[in-house]
Amino acid sequence: MPLSAYLVVSVALFVIGLAMVAARRNLIYVLMGLELILNAANLNFVAFNRENPGDLDGQIAAIFVIILAAAEAAIALAIVLNLNSRIQSIRPDDADTMKD
Amino acid sequence: MGIQLAFYFFAAMTLGFALVSLFHKNVVHSAFSLLGTLLGMSGLYVTLNADFLAMTQVLIYAGGILMLLLFGLMLTKPSETERSLKRIFVAVILAGGTAVLSAYKMAGTVWSSGDGELPASTVKEIGLEFLRFDEWLIAFEFASIVLLAALVGAVHIARRRFPIDDTNALLKAEQGGAN
Amino acid sequence: MTPESQIVWLLAVPLLPLVAWALQVSFGRFLPRQGDWLPTGAMGLSAVIAVWMFIGVLSGHDAGTGTLVSAELANPLTWKFFFSDPALTEGLAGFQAGILYDPLAAALLAMVAVVSFLVHLFSVGYMQGDSRYNIFFANLPLFTFAMLAMLLSDNLLFFFIFWEVMGLCSYLLIGHLSQDKEKPRTEAAWASFKAFMTTRIGDVCLFIGMMMVYDKFGTLSFHGLYAAVADYTANGTHWEGWLTAAGIMMFLGAVGKSAQFPLHVWLPDAMEGPTPVSAMIHAATMVAAGVYLTGRLFLLFSPEAQLVVACIGAFTAIFAATIGITQFDIKKVLAYSTISQLGYMICAIGVGGVAAGLFHVITHAIFKACLFLGSGSVIYGCHHEQDMRKMGGLRKKMPITYLTMLASTLAISGVPFFAGFYSKDAILAKALEKSMVTGDWYWAAPFWLLLAAAAITAFYMFRLIFMTFHGKPRDHGSEHAHESPWTMTVPLIVLGTLAIFGGKFWLTDPMHAISGGDEPWFFQIVDDPTHAEFATIDLHDGHTEAAHDSHELAGHDDHDIAHTAHVRAMFMSIAAAGSGILLACLFYLWGILSAASIANRLGGFYRLVLDKYRFDELYNATVIRGTTVLSGFLCWVDENVIDAFVLNLAKLHRGGASLSGVFDKYVVDGMVTWVGETTVAAGQTLRRLQTGRIQQYVYFTLAGALALAAVSLLGIF
Description:
The complex is a heterotrimer of chains A (100), B (179) and C (717).
Chain A: H1 3-23, H2 27-51, H3 57-87
Helix pairs in contact in A: 1-2, 2-3
Chain B: H1 2-23, H2 27-47, H3 51-75, H4 85-107, H5 123-131, H6 137-158, H7 167-178
Helix pairs in contact in B: 1-2, 2-3
Chain C: H1 3-27, H2 37-59, E1 61-62, E2 67-68, H3 71-74, E3 77-83, E4 96-101, H4 103-126, H5 133-152, H6 156-174, H7 186-217, H8 222-232, H9 241-257, H10 266-269, H11 275-284, H12 286-296, H13 303-326, H14 330-350, H15 354-381, H16 394-397, H17 399-413, H18 419-438, H19 441-469, H20 476-479, H21 486-506, H22 512-515, H23 521-525, H24 529-541, H25 545-589, H26 595-602, H27 604-610, H28 615-687, H29 694-714
Antiparallel strand pairs in C: 1-2, 3-4
């Protein structure tokens, strides 16, 4: 399959993740959208790695992204739980105390 | 031919489940459809001969991150899922803009059309890369530290506690206990 | 006598009265007899020292050869006791002050000291019962100190200082009665004020003159000025206009002090002072200071200035004499007589007879002091009556006063062998000599004016004697008149005796003009400084031998002319005096002519003279009114122009300040406030962007990223 096919999939996945981050009113959805965006980026890494077979830098970068995504997910979910215990809500709009 | 079919299949699986998770009202259903997306991604990696990455994808995303999301859903109050037209409009504009721009750029670019020569198996190479001091060793060790710090930080943040200044909450909790 | 001891004795002469003044003004009230003996005794000592010093000067003179034997006196004694370092007064020679004791100063010092002592003595009797007796006896020695110190000054500045102290004392003493505790006299206050202000005009002129010469020559020492002027004018042959002006300015000081026309108006009014004061200050000493000044500065006068001096003197002599005829107040007559005689002296100096003029100062001081004290005695005897029309027949009741006053009158009239004859004769001779030498008509005028004044003087003085002492008593007061106590008669006797024999005492050969004998020794000692000083300069230069010879030749011619002039002047003056006395006898002794009918026939002119030529009215109308109007105008200018200008300036400033205040408030402050408010407003506005909502931030971030991507990808810019 040509590279551009993977890129189209990657863009579509990115746009879906973006829409999820922007539109949904639940922090869990926002986190899920972020995962989609990261996956889109990973797909690009791996797809471009195929065009440069001499090394595996693309795949290794993708592995680091996965590692960071895991860490991010752990911390973000901890924050969501903390937020939920404080304001009894996980709606991002309710967490606007920074305004003041 | 087989790879092409596999690609179409996994691509459709990835985007289809992603759209389901995007549009579905039920957050649990969305989370489970995200599992399909992640598995589809794993399949796409396979079509790219990134077998180690595909396996890692399944292990960490499907087995770790998604489970964390589900735990988060279970530990929090189910949030309202009513839609906001204003938000959707904004999201459509932003996402559409991004899509249009990307498409425009991609259409204007001449991509390499041929299939690259894929390595047969990447597991061993990746392991060697990580262990080579002049390549990724430092980053690899830093990644382990980051993971450790993230785990400790997550435990610390998520720990249930009453802040010292939040005496009202403490009082309410005691009264509630008494009642 | 060594110069050092001479200086000590000389300093004692003025300092004794000064010490007496200091003690009297501090403790006079507590001393017995209110301390009158203290200044009188001090003055007595002072007079003795002054006369003794003067005898020392005389003994240094050999009358036979007519030269000065004493080397000390050949060089006038000058002791510098005060000087400034020339290094500190850059460009100037340094200021020096000291004592100048030459024969001229010696003669006047002795005269002033003696007359002052006698006046002190007289005052002890005359001022008895005055409410401010001690003050009077404090002011009198202060005046004497100033006069004596002035005579010893060797420079114009110290001269001027003591001159001013004298003016102050004159003011205090004229106004003495204005402070009387029982019946204060307003007239005395006005008279003292008038005297002070009138002499002040002259003093200012004198000071201006002093500054003019100091500016040019850098010295105020008399001898320094003589040398400088002789040098500057090429031995008196080349005079510049400014020097004439400076001379006239300094002479105006003398005009004020010696009551010369046109500043004569204060002296008659000064008779408001007690009679001893009139005798001393306004007859014998202070008014003579002007003559002394003129004599001292004679070498500084250009020929034009000399003419001015001579004309003012001569005019004053005749002008005051005519007023004297018409007055009835005995002291006013004597006051105008004094002005007239001072005119004589000034004129004498103007025509070059410095010695003659100063000789007349001395003789006049004696007989005029005697006349004033005699008039004081008369006034005292007649219970403070001053009008001669109410007197008469006092000859029998006050014989001593009569005889001494008669002697003085004969002296002032110029009757031969009395003191005044010699001095007046010398003046007339000098005036005639000057007119003969120059041959100019304007130099002849002073002589004829003086001759007429001599006749008039004889007339009005005998009028005074006849009206006062002869005939029958015309009033209650004069009927019961009595002779005065010894303190008053003794000075009269002394002065009267001097008035008779004084002239001879000064002269070894009174008739030298006829007999062809030597010059009187006074004239040899107090030589006209012209020849001596300029001759010294000649010799000093050494190369002006020819000029010196020609001067000698000219001197020989001058001597012949002087001899002729002297003989002629003597006979003319005797004739004038005789005619004056004869007229007075016709009018007032024998009653052949009636003064009243003559006065009636003269009519308006008589009244004009009786009113003293209405000079007081003239000055009132011009100078005083003018000054008042001018000061009113200046006041108006001050109020309406200067004040208005200042006020408007202030208003302008205030307006400007308020403008700048407005600017400050609305522009500067406004800008600062605007910046602050705008910041706050912008913050308030932009604050709404900070919703705290994460997703909105995501929107903004994405929108920005999209915009950037659009810009870069689409190549919009």
